[in-house]
Amino acid sequence: MMTLLDALNRRYAVKRFTDQILEDDRLDSLMEAVRLSPSAFGVQPYRLILIRNPAVRAALVHHSMGQDKVLYSSHLLVFAACSAVDSSMVDQLVDEMVAQRGGNLETYKGLEQHVKSYLNDMDLAEKAKWADQQLYLALGNCLTSAALLDIDCCPMTGFDPEGYDRVLQLQPEGLRTVAVCALGQRHPEDALAEQAKVRLPAEELIRRWP
Question: Are 181 and 156 a contacting pair, CB within 8 Å?
Fold first, then answer.
């Protein structure tokens, strides 16, 4: 496995993929890494939709501003936020804590009340923004984890979310598309692969207090 900095220096937003299909074990490792992403209170107000089906992805190209890497890659990973951010999510979290950590519902009563109060203080727009923030933590972790697993990818927000929701029939499931990420292996003729990575110098980006 590459070192972290080697992987991050090598990764870029791939514009052209090969037709190679990623192995199941690497995909499984990536999905597990994303599942382990941090989120506020441990609530994960989003779902991951991994799509291989070419027909479905071809339908999504129409809603992707012509970005055909949605189709011409190994897989497409859709990050969909939960439309309803409410106390039921907290109940599910507490149930999982009981199942995975032990104890009973009373053990986590304080946490349950705190998180429910936190969410109840938000209006619908604030809840949607909060859900998106947790989702982007997972997306960022996906990009780093993919790089370490030698999986190339291209994150995208330039698409029609409502079009995606219709094709994937997400509304009945209480989900809405927020971001997508094409996964695969970079094509040797992708011109961007050899370009230098451009970032702000460390002394400009990082402010160190004495």
Answer: yes
List the one residue out of 180, 114, 139, 190 whose CA is nearest residue 30: 139
Give CA–CA dist 113/26, Å, rounded: 39
Q: How far is the CA of 132 from the CAs of 38, 59, 101, in angstroms?
A: 13, 24, 27
Sequence-separated contacts (24+) of 195-198 with Cβ below 8 Å:
195/12, 197/9, 197/12
Give the Cα separation of 169 and 165 in Å (integer).
6
In the DSSP assignment, the letter for residue 62 is T
Question: Which pairs from 19-23 meet CB under 8 Å and 24+ separation?
Answer: 19/72, 20/74, 20/184, 20/185, 21/52, 21/74, 22/74, 22/75, 22/151, 22/183, 22/184, 22/185
Is the distance from CB of 152 to CB of 30 less than 8 angstroms? no
**pLDDT, tens only, 97-122:** 999 999 999 999 999 999 999 999 99
* φ/ψ (deg, to 5) at 172: -60, -20
Q: Tell me, what DSSP letter sits at residue 150?
A: T
CB 178, CB 43: distance < 8 Å: no
| Alpha-carbon Rg for the chain in angstroms | 19
Q: What is the pLDDT of residue 1?
A: 56
